Amino acid sequence: MPREIGPKFPIVITSYEVVMNDAKFLSHYTWKYVVVDEGHRLKNMNCKLLREIRRLPIENKLLLTGTPLQNNLAELWSLLNFILPDIFSSHQEFESWFDFSGKYYSDGEQEESEEKRRVQVISKLHSILRPFLLRRMKADVERMLPRKKEIILYANMTEQQKNIQNHLLNRTLENYLIETVSSGVVRPGMKGKLNNLLMQLRKNCNHPDILQSGYDESFSYPPIDILVEQCGKFQLLERLLALLLPRKHKVLIFSQFTRVVDLLEYYLSEKGMEVCRIDGRVKLDERKRQIEEFNNLKSNVNIFLLSTRAGGLGINLTAADTCIIYDSDWNPQMDLQAMDRCHRIGQTRPVHVYRLATSHSVEGKIIKRAFGKLKLEHVVIGKGDFHQDRARANALDEAELLALLRNEEDPEDKLYQTDISDEDLLRLMDRSDLIQGRGTDGSEESAPSLPLKGPGWEVVVPTKSGGSLLSAVSS
Fold it and tell me: What InterPro entries does the record tag this protein with (predicted)?
Protein backbone atom coordinates (compact mmCIF):
# COMPACT_ATOMS: atom_id res chain seq x y z
CA MET A 1 0.00 0.00 0.00
CA PRO A 2 1.35 3.46 -0.85
CA ARG A 3 2.29 5.43 2.25
CA GLU A 4 0.78 8.81 3.06
CA ILE A 5 3.19 11.69 3.61
CA GLY A 6 3.00 12.76 7.26
CA PRO A 7 2.29 16.22 8.72
CA LYS A 8 6.01 16.98 8.92
CA PHE A 9 6.22 17.04 5.12
CA PRO A 10 2.88 18.27 3.76
CA ILE A 11 4.52 19.78 0.68
CA VAL A 12 7.53 18.63 -1.33
CA ILE A 13 9.28 21.06 -3.68
CA THR A 14 11.72 19.49 -6.08
CA SER A 15 13.31 19.79 -9.51
CA TYR A 16 12.78 17.95 -12.78
CA GLU A 17 16.13 16.22 -12.36
CA VAL A 18 15.25 14.79 -8.92
CA VAL A 19 11.88 13.56 -10.23
CA MET A 20 13.58 11.77 -13.12
CA ASN A 21 16.26 10.23 -10.90
CA ASP A 22 14.05 9.33 -7.91
CA ALA A 23 10.71 8.49 -9.53
CA LYS A 24 10.98 4.96 -8.18
CA PHE A 25 11.03 6.24 -4.58
CA LEU A 26 8.51 9.04 -5.13
CA SER A 27 6.07 6.48 -6.54
CA HIS A 28 5.77 4.95 -3.04
CA TYR A 29 3.56 7.87 -2.02
CA THR A 30 0.05 8.89 -3.08
CA TRP A 31 0.13 12.54 -4.15
CA LYS A 32 -2.99 14.65 -3.64
CA TYR A 33 -1.75 17.34 -6.04
CA VAL A 34 1.19 17.59 -8.39
CA VAL A 35 1.93 21.05 -9.77
CA VAL A 36 4.37 21.23 -12.69
CA ASP A 37 5.86 24.66 -13.26
CA GLU A 38 7.06 25.43 -16.81
CA GLY A 39 4.53 22.79 -17.83
CA HIS A 40 5.47 23.04 -21.51
CA ARG A 41 8.42 20.82 -20.57
CA LEU A 42 5.89 17.97 -21.00
CA LYS A 43 5.03 18.91 -24.59
CA ASN A 44 6.93 15.93 -25.99
CA MET A 45 4.84 12.85 -25.30
CA ASN A 46 7.99 10.69 -25.41
CA CYS A 47 10.22 12.75 -23.10
CA LYS A 48 11.79 11.13 -20.02
CA LEU A 49 10.34 13.69 -17.59
CA LEU A 50 6.78 12.93 -18.69
CA ARG A 51 7.44 9.19 -18.60
CA GLU A 52 8.76 9.33 -15.02
CA ILE A 53 5.98 11.61 -13.70
CA ARG A 54 3.41 9.16 -15.05
CA ARG A 55 4.82 6.57 -12.63
CA LEU A 56 3.60 8.59 -9.63
CA PRO A 57 0.15 7.93 -8.09
CA ILE A 58 -1.48 11.35 -8.55
CA GLU A 59 -5.05 12.37 -7.71
CA ASN A 60 -4.94 15.91 -9.17
CA LYS A 61 -2.62 17.57 -11.68
CA LEU A 62 -1.94 21.20 -12.49
CA LEU A 63 0.35 22.59 -15.19
CA LEU A 64 1.65 26.16 -15.05
CA THR A 65 2.96 27.53 -18.33
CA GLY A 66 3.05 30.73 -20.28
CA THR A 67 3.39 28.86 -23.58
CA PRO A 68 0.88 25.97 -23.77
CA LEU A 69 1.14 25.82 -27.56
CA GLN A 70 4.59 26.27 -29.03
CA ASN A 71 4.79 24.48 -32.36
CA ASN A 72 1.81 22.27 -33.15
CA LEU A 73 -1.35 20.62 -31.83
CA ALA A 74 0.50 17.41 -30.94
CA GLU A 75 2.30 19.29 -28.17
CA LEU A 76 -0.97 20.68 -26.81
CA TRP A 77 -2.47 17.19 -26.86
CA SER A 78 0.53 15.87 -24.89
CA LEU A 79 -0.22 18.35 -22.09
CA LEU A 80 -3.96 17.62 -22.06
CA ASN A 81 -3.35 13.87 -22.22
CA PHE A 82 -1.19 14.15 -19.09
CA ILE A 83 -3.91 16.12 -17.27
CA LEU A 84 -6.88 13.97 -18.35
CA PRO A 85 -5.76 10.81 -20.17
CA ASP A 86 -9.27 9.33 -20.18
CA ILE A 87 -10.74 12.28 -22.09
CA PHE A 88 -7.77 13.08 -24.33
CA SER A 89 -6.81 9.52 -25.09
CA SER A 90 -6.49 9.67 -28.88
CA HIS A 91 -4.10 12.09 -30.54
CA GLN A 92 -5.65 11.49 -33.97
CA GLU A 93 -9.17 12.18 -32.70
CA PHE A 94 -7.98 15.34 -30.93
CA GLU A 95 -6.46 16.76 -34.11
CA SER A 96 -9.67 16.02 -36.00
CA TRP A 97 -11.54 18.38 -33.68
CA PHE A 98 -9.39 21.26 -34.93
CA ASP A 99 -9.33 20.42 -38.61
CA PHE A 100 -10.29 23.26 -40.95
CA SER A 101 -10.09 21.33 -44.21
CA GLY A 102 -13.63 19.99 -44.00
CA LYS A 103 -12.63 16.35 -44.51
CA TYR A 104 -14.29 15.39 -41.21
CA TYR A 105 -17.60 16.93 -42.26
CA SER A 106 -20.50 15.52 -44.24
CA ASP A 107 -21.10 16.35 -47.90
CA GLY A 108 -23.74 18.88 -46.91
CA GLU A 109 -21.40 20.67 -44.57
CA GLN A 110 -18.73 20.69 -47.27
CA GLU A 111 -20.96 23.00 -49.26
CA GLU A 112 -21.07 25.61 -46.51
CA SER A 113 -19.03 28.72 -46.94
CA GLU A 114 -15.45 28.61 -45.69
CA GLU A 115 -16.08 31.52 -43.37
CA LYS A 116 -19.07 29.86 -41.68
CA ARG A 117 -17.21 26.57 -41.21
CA ARG A 118 -14.22 28.40 -39.74
CA VAL A 119 -16.40 30.18 -37.18
CA GLN A 120 -18.07 26.90 -36.21
CA VAL A 121 -14.78 25.08 -35.67
CA ILE A 122 -13.24 27.94 -33.69
CA SER A 123 -16.31 28.04 -31.45
CA LYS A 124 -16.09 24.29 -30.96
CA LEU A 125 -12.40 24.25 -30.04
CA HIS A 126 -12.87 27.04 -27.51
CA SER A 127 -15.76 25.19 -25.88
CA ILE A 128 -13.59 22.06 -25.68
CA LEU A 129 -10.60 23.81 -24.14
CA ARG A 130 -12.38 26.27 -21.85
CA PRO A 131 -12.92 23.84 -18.91
CA PHE A 132 -9.22 22.91 -18.87
CA LEU A 133 -7.51 26.27 -19.28
CA LEU A 134 -7.39 29.19 -16.88
CA ARG A 135 -5.60 31.92 -18.79
CA ARG A 136 -4.22 35.02 -17.13
CA MET A 137 -2.31 37.66 -19.07
CA LYS A 138 0.09 40.16 -17.55
CA ALA A 139 -2.50 42.86 -18.16
CA ASP A 140 -5.01 40.90 -16.04
CA VAL A 141 -2.84 41.03 -12.92
CA GLU A 142 -0.94 44.27 -13.52
CA ARG A 143 -3.07 46.82 -15.33
CA MET A 144 -0.41 49.49 -14.96
CA LEU A 145 2.22 47.44 -16.80
CA PRO A 146 3.73 49.68 -19.50
CA ARG A 147 3.03 48.75 -23.08
CA LYS A 148 5.36 47.04 -25.53
CA LYS A 149 5.96 47.58 -29.23
CA GLU A 150 7.81 45.20 -31.54
CA ILE A 151 9.43 46.44 -34.75
CA ILE A 152 11.23 44.44 -37.44
CA LEU A 153 14.21 46.29 -38.89
CA TYR A 154 15.58 45.00 -42.19
CA ALA A 155 19.26 45.21 -43.09
CA ASN A 156 20.65 44.78 -46.58
CA MET A 157 23.51 42.42 -47.28
CA THR A 158 26.97 43.80 -47.88
CA GLU A 159 28.77 42.87 -51.09
CA GLN A 160 30.79 40.29 -49.16
CA GLN A 161 27.62 38.67 -47.82
CA LYS A 162 26.06 38.63 -51.29
CA ASN A 163 29.14 36.98 -52.74
CA ILE A 164 29.15 34.32 -50.01
CA GLN A 165 25.42 33.68 -50.47
CA ASN A 166 25.78 33.35 -54.25
CA HIS A 167 28.71 30.97 -53.78
CA LEU A 168 26.77 28.81 -51.33
CA LEU A 169 23.71 28.70 -53.55
CA ASN A 170 25.51 27.95 -56.79
CA ARG A 171 27.66 25.22 -55.25
CA THR A 172 24.81 23.40 -53.51
CA LEU A 173 21.92 23.97 -55.86
CA GLU A 174 23.62 23.02 -59.08
CA ASN A 175 23.71 19.31 -58.21
CA TYR A 176 20.24 19.48 -56.69
CA LEU A 177 18.65 20.98 -59.78
CA ILE A 178 20.49 18.67 -62.17
CA GLU A 179 19.49 15.55 -60.26
CA THR A 180 15.89 16.64 -59.68
CA VAL A 181 15.24 17.74 -63.26
CA SER A 182 16.86 14.66 -64.78
CA SER A 183 15.32 12.04 -62.54
CA GLY A 184 12.22 13.72 -61.16
CA VAL A 185 13.10 12.57 -57.63
CA VAL A 186 15.43 13.81 -54.93
CA ARG A 187 18.25 11.40 -54.24
CA PRO A 188 19.03 10.30 -50.67
CA GLY A 189 21.13 12.82 -48.77
CA MET A 190 20.11 15.83 -50.83
CA LYS A 191 17.57 17.06 -48.28
CA GLY A 192 20.29 17.02 -45.63
CA LYS A 193 22.49 19.11 -47.91
CA LEU A 194 19.71 21.64 -48.33
CA ASN A 195 19.20 21.85 -44.57
CA ASN A 196 22.94 22.37 -44.13
CA LEU A 197 22.75 25.08 -46.79
CA LEU A 198 20.01 26.76 -44.80
CA MET A 199 22.23 26.88 -41.69
CA GLN A 200 25.16 28.32 -43.66
CA LEU A 201 22.91 31.01 -45.13
CA ARG A 202 21.68 31.94 -41.65
CA LYS A 203 25.26 32.24 -40.40
CA ASN A 204 26.09 34.48 -43.36
CA CYS A 205 23.15 36.75 -42.44
CA ASN A 206 24.41 37.01 -38.85
CA HIS A 207 27.99 37.76 -39.87
CA PRO A 208 30.21 36.40 -42.67
CA ASP A 209 33.17 36.18 -40.30
CA ILE A 210 31.46 33.18 -38.65
CA LEU A 211 31.87 31.28 -41.92
CA GLN A 212 35.19 32.85 -42.89
CA SER A 213 36.92 32.05 -39.60
CA GLY A 214 35.74 28.46 -39.81
CA TYR A 215 37.09 28.16 -43.35
CA ASP A 216 40.57 29.62 -42.79
CA GLU A 217 40.81 28.50 -39.13
CA SER A 218 41.41 32.08 -38.03
CA PHE A 219 41.15 32.63 -34.28
CA SER A 220 41.57 36.41 -34.29
CA TYR A 221 38.88 38.95 -35.11
CA PRO A 222 39.44 41.69 -37.65
CA PRO A 223 39.46 45.34 -36.48
CA ILE A 224 35.97 46.46 -35.45
CA ASP A 225 35.61 48.92 -38.35
CA ILE A 226 36.10 46.02 -40.78
CA LEU A 227 33.83 43.80 -38.66
CA VAL A 228 31.02 46.33 -39.04
CA GLU A 229 31.74 46.92 -42.71
CA GLN A 230 31.35 43.19 -43.46
CA CYS A 231 27.79 42.75 -42.18
CA GLY A 232 24.52 44.59 -42.82
CA LYS A 233 22.99 43.65 -39.46
CA PHE A 234 26.10 44.80 -37.60
CA GLN A 235 25.82 48.17 -39.34
CA LEU A 236 22.15 48.42 -38.35
CA LEU A 237 22.93 47.40 -34.77
CA GLU A 238 25.65 50.06 -34.54
CA ARG A 239 23.16 52.72 -35.68
CA LEU A 240 20.61 51.52 -33.13
CA LEU A 241 23.01 51.53 -30.19
CA ALA A 242 24.33 54.96 -31.17
CA LEU A 243 20.79 56.31 -30.68
CA LEU A 244 19.72 54.20 -27.69
CA LEU A 245 22.66 54.48 -25.31
CA PRO A 246 22.95 58.31 -25.21
CA ARG A 247 19.23 58.37 -24.33
CA LYS A 248 19.94 56.22 -21.23
CA HIS A 249 18.16 53.11 -22.50
CA LYS A 250 19.39 49.79 -21.12
CA VAL A 251 19.49 47.11 -23.80
CA LEU A 252 19.20 43.31 -23.97
CA ILE A 253 20.64 41.67 -27.10
CA PHE A 254 19.63 38.05 -27.84
CA SER A 255 21.13 35.63 -30.35
CA GLN A 256 20.76 31.87 -30.81
CA PHE A 257 24.41 31.48 -31.77
CA THR A 258 27.21 31.59 -29.20
CA ARG A 259 29.60 32.65 -31.97
CA VAL A 260 27.45 35.70 -32.60
CA VAL A 261 27.47 36.54 -28.88
CA ASP A 262 31.29 36.21 -29.00
CA LEU A 263 31.47 38.65 -31.92
CA LEU A 264 29.15 41.12 -30.20
CA GLU A 265 31.13 40.95 -26.96
CA TYR A 266 34.40 41.56 -28.84
CA TYR A 267 32.93 44.48 -30.79
CA LEU A 268 31.43 46.17 -27.72
CA SER A 269 34.51 45.67 -25.55
CA GLU A 270 36.69 47.17 -28.30
CA LYS A 271 34.33 50.16 -28.29
CA GLY A 272 35.07 50.53 -24.57
CA MET A 273 31.62 49.39 -23.37
CA GLU A 274 31.03 47.26 -20.29
CA VAL A 275 28.65 44.36 -20.92
CA CYS A 276 27.10 41.46 -19.06
CA ARG A 277 26.73 38.09 -20.71
CA ILE A 278 24.76 34.88 -20.15
CA ASP A 279 24.94 31.74 -22.26
CA GLY A 280 24.91 28.01 -21.52
CA ARG A 281 28.50 28.10 -20.25
CA VAL A 282 27.93 30.71 -17.52
CA LYS A 283 27.59 29.22 -14.02
CA LEU A 284 24.62 29.98 -11.76
CA ASP A 285 26.55 32.15 -9.28
CA GLU A 286 28.02 34.23 -12.08
CA ARG A 287 24.55 34.63 -13.62
CA LYS A 288 23.18 35.99 -10.34
CA ARG A 289 26.09 38.40 -9.94
CA GLN A 290 25.67 39.81 -13.46
CA ILE A 291 21.89 40.15 -13.14
CA GLU A 292 22.29 42.08 -9.87
CA GLU A 293 24.93 44.31 -11.42
CA PHE A 294 22.84 45.07 -14.51
CA ASN A 295 19.68 45.79 -12.49
CA ASN A 296 21.56 48.15 -10.17
CA LEU A 297 20.41 51.66 -11.11
CA LYS A 298 23.87 53.02 -10.30
CA SER A 299 25.59 50.55 -12.62
CA ASN A 300 27.33 51.74 -15.78
CA VAL A 301 26.55 48.46 -17.58
CA ASN A 302 23.86 49.23 -20.16
CA ILE A 303 24.09 46.18 -22.44
CA PHE A 304 23.34 42.55 -21.59
CA LEU A 305 24.23 39.86 -24.15
CA LEU A 306 22.24 36.63 -23.89
CA SER A 307 21.78 33.43 -25.84
CA THR A 308 18.07 32.97 -26.58
CA ARG A 309 17.80 29.51 -25.03
CA ALA A 310 19.99 30.02 -21.95
CA GLY A 311 18.86 33.57 -21.16
CA GLY A 312 15.24 33.44 -22.23
CA LEU A 313 13.72 31.86 -19.10
CA GLY A 314 13.56 32.63 -15.39
CA ILE A 315 15.53 35.89 -15.48
CA ASN A 316 14.30 39.30 -14.36
CA LEU A 317 16.00 42.16 -16.22
CA THR A 318 13.46 44.96 -15.82
CA ALA A 319 16.26 47.52 -15.64
CA ALA A 320 16.24 47.23 -19.44
CA ASP A 321 13.53 48.86 -21.50
CA THR A 322 14.83 47.74 -24.90
CA CYS A 323 15.23 44.25 -26.34
CA ILE A 324 17.07 43.49 -29.58
CA ILE A 325 16.48 40.08 -31.18
CA TYR A 326 19.59 39.80 -33.36
CA ASP A 327 18.36 36.57 -35.02
CA SER A 328 14.95 34.93 -34.72
CA ASP A 329 14.29 31.47 -33.29
CA TRP A 330 12.35 28.83 -35.22
CA ASN A 331 10.12 28.58 -32.17
CA PRO A 332 8.45 32.00 -31.73
CA GLN A 333 7.73 31.31 -28.06
CA MET A 334 11.47 31.40 -27.38
CA ASP A 335 11.65 34.96 -28.69
CA LEU A 336 8.54 35.96 -26.71
CA GLN A 337 10.14 34.54 -23.56
CA ALA A 338 13.28 36.55 -24.35
CA MET A 339 11.25 39.77 -24.65
CA ASP A 340 9.60 39.02 -21.32
CA ARG A 341 12.95 39.29 -19.52
CA CYS A 342 12.32 43.05 -19.51
CA HIS A 343 8.58 43.34 -20.30
CA ARG A 344 7.28 41.84 -17.07
CA ILE A 345 5.80 42.85 -13.74
CA GLY A 346 8.20 45.36 -12.20
CA GLN A 347 8.83 47.22 -15.46
CA THR A 348 8.02 50.93 -15.14
CA ARG A 349 8.82 52.16 -18.66
CA PRO A 350 7.42 51.35 -22.10
CA VAL A 351 9.41 48.65 -23.87
CA HIS A 352 10.64 48.53 -27.46
CA VAL A 353 11.62 45.28 -29.14
CA TYR A 354 13.73 45.50 -32.30
CA ARG A 355 13.89 42.29 -34.33
CA LEU A 356 16.75 42.44 -36.84
CA ALA A 357 16.44 40.60 -40.15
CA THR A 358 18.36 40.51 -43.40
CA SER A 359 16.15 41.47 -46.33
CA HIS A 360 15.58 38.95 -49.14
CA SER A 361 17.17 36.07 -47.25
CA VAL A 362 16.23 32.90 -45.41
CA GLU A 363 15.66 35.03 -42.30
CA GLY A 364 12.48 36.45 -43.82
CA LYS A 365 11.18 32.91 -44.35
CA ILE A 366 12.02 31.97 -40.77
CA ILE A 367 10.17 34.99 -39.39
CA LYS A 368 7.07 34.27 -41.49
CA ARG A 369 7.13 30.63 -40.33
CA ALA A 370 7.47 31.70 -36.69
CA PHE A 371 4.56 34.11 -36.90
CA GLY A 372 2.53 31.40 -38.59
CA LYS A 373 3.00 29.33 -35.42
CA LEU A 374 1.85 32.28 -33.33
CA LYS A 375 -1.25 32.41 -35.51
CA LEU A 376 -1.95 28.76 -34.59
CA GLU A 377 -1.59 29.64 -30.89
CA HIS A 378 -3.85 32.65 -31.37
CA VAL A 379 -6.60 30.44 -32.81
CA VAL A 380 -6.43 27.56 -30.36
CA ILE A 381 -5.63 29.34 -27.10
CA GLY A 382 -6.74 32.90 -27.73
CA LYS A 383 -9.96 34.21 -29.21
CA GLY A 384 -8.90 34.93 -32.77
CA ASP A 385 -10.77 34.12 -35.95
CA PHE A 386 -7.86 33.38 -38.25
CA HIS A 387 -7.71 30.42 -40.61
CA GLN A 388 -5.44 27.75 -39.21
CA ASP A 389 -2.29 26.72 -41.06
CA ARG A 390 -0.81 23.51 -39.74
CA ALA A 391 2.62 24.20 -38.25
CA ARG A 392 5.11 22.21 -40.23
CA ALA A 393 8.63 21.08 -39.48
CA ASN A 394 11.23 23.60 -38.39
CA ALA A 395 12.99 23.54 -41.76
CA LEU A 396 11.95 25.19 -44.97
CA ASP A 397 10.71 22.65 -47.48
CA GLU A 398 12.41 22.26 -50.84
CA ALA A 399 9.84 24.32 -52.74
CA GLU A 400 10.27 27.27 -50.36
CA LEU A 401 14.05 27.07 -50.53
CA LEU A 402 14.01 26.95 -54.31
CA ALA A 403 11.64 29.92 -54.48
CA LEU A 404 14.07 31.94 -52.40
CA LEU A 405 17.18 30.73 -54.17
CA ARG A 406 15.76 31.54 -57.59
CA ASN A 407 15.30 35.13 -56.42
CA GLU A 408 11.54 34.86 -56.40
CA GLU A 409 10.14 37.71 -54.32
CA ASP A 410 6.89 39.51 -53.69
CA PRO A 411 6.38 43.30 -53.85
CA GLU A 412 6.91 43.62 -50.08
CA ASP A 413 10.44 42.24 -50.41
CA LYS A 414 11.43 45.24 -52.52
CA LEU A 415 10.03 47.58 -49.86
CA TYR A 416 12.26 46.02 -47.22
CA GLN A 417 15.34 46.00 -49.45
CA THR A 418 15.84 49.66 -48.64
CA ASP A 419 18.07 50.89 -45.84
CA ILE A 420 15.95 52.55 -43.20
CA SER A 421 16.53 56.30 -43.14
CA ASP A 422 17.84 58.12 -40.08
CA GLU A 423 14.58 60.04 -39.97
CA ASP A 424 12.44 56.88 -39.92
CA LEU A 425 14.71 55.24 -37.36
CA LEU A 426 14.28 58.19 -35.02
CA ARG A 427 10.51 58.13 -35.53
CA LEU A 428 10.36 54.43 -34.74
CA MET A 429 12.35 54.93 -31.55
CA ASP A 430 9.84 57.44 -30.22
CA ARG A 431 7.86 55.87 -27.37
CA SER A 432 5.44 58.69 -26.70
CA ASP A 433 2.53 56.77 -28.30
CA LEU A 434 2.99 53.99 -25.72
CA ILE A 435 2.75 56.50 -22.90
CA GLN A 436 -0.05 58.65 -24.32
CA GLY A 437 -2.22 55.61 -24.90
CA ARG A 438 -2.43 54.71 -21.20
CA GLY A 439 -5.15 56.22 -19.03
CA THR A 440 -4.76 57.02 -15.36
CA ASP A 441 -6.65 53.85 -14.44
CA GLY A 442 -4.44 51.70 -16.66
CA SER A 443 -6.95 51.44 -19.49
CA GLU A 444 -5.78 51.81 -23.08
CA GLU A 445 -6.77 54.82 -25.11
CA SER A 446 -6.27 55.54 -28.77
CA ALA A 447 -2.89 57.07 -29.56
CA PRO A 448 -1.22 58.23 -32.79
CA SER A 449 0.93 55.55 -34.38
CA LEU A 450 3.19 55.02 -37.37
CA PRO A 451 2.11 53.12 -40.47
CA LEU A 452 2.58 49.38 -40.08
CA LYS A 453 5.15 49.21 -42.88
CA GLY A 454 7.79 51.45 -44.40
CA PRO A 455 11.09 51.30 -46.28
CA GLY A 456 13.28 48.94 -44.27
CA TRP A 457 10.91 48.36 -41.34
CA GLU A 458 7.65 46.77 -40.21
CA VAL A 459 5.64 47.16 -37.00
CA VAL A 460 4.34 43.90 -35.52
CA VAL A 461 0.65 43.77 -34.60
CA PRO A 462 -0.07 42.62 -31.01
CA THR A 463 -2.90 40.18 -30.28
CA LYS A 464 -5.27 39.91 -27.33
CA SER A 465 -3.89 36.45 -26.55
CA GLY A 466 -0.55 37.95 -25.64
CA GLY A 467 1.35 37.10 -28.81
CA SER A 468 2.01 39.11 -31.92
CA LEU A 469 1.39 38.76 -35.63
CA LEU A 470 2.89 40.12 -38.77
CA SER A 471 0.31 42.24 -40.53
CA ALA A 472 0.81 40.13 -43.65
CA VAL A 473 0.14 36.94 -41.72
CA SER A 474 -2.95 38.17 -39.95
CA SER A 475 -4.57 39.78 -42.95
Answer: Helicase_ATP-bd, Helicase_C-like, P-loop_NTPase, SNF2-like_sf, SNF2/RAD54-like_C, SNF2_N
- Does 4 fall in a domain? no
Count structural domains, the chain.
Answer: 2
Nearby residues of 326 by Cβ (< 8 Å), 6 or more positions away: 206, 233, 237, 253, 254, 255, 260, 264, 356
* pTM for the structure as a whole: 0.72
Domain limits for position 452: 141-157+238-474
Strands (E) in 65-166, as ranges, are 148-155
- The separation between the first and the last C-alpha atoms of the chain, rounded to the nearest angstrom, is 59
In this structure, what CATH number is given to the domain that contains residue 85?
A: 3.40.50.10810
pLDDT at 296: 93
What's the CA gap between 183 and 458, in Å, rounded? 42
Rounded Cα gap, residues 435 and 147, in angstroms: 8
Question: What's the CATH code of the domain at 308?
Answer: 3.40.50.300
Residue 7 has a pLDDT of 64
Element (DSSP H or E) covering residue 453? strand 453-454
- Give yes or no: residues 285 and 369 share one domain: yes
Q: What value, to the nearest 5°, has the Cα angle with vertex 330 and ends 326 and 331?
A: 105
**Confidence category of residue 15, pLDDT binned at 50, 70, 90:** confident
Q: What is the pLDDT of residues 180-223, one digit of tens each?
A: 545 555 555 666 677 788 889 999 999 999 887 755 566 688 89
Query: What pLDDT, on the 0 to 100 scale, is given for residue 408?
Result: 56
Q: Out of 312-316, 410-414, 463-467, which region has the weakest mean confidence (pLDDT)? A: 463-467
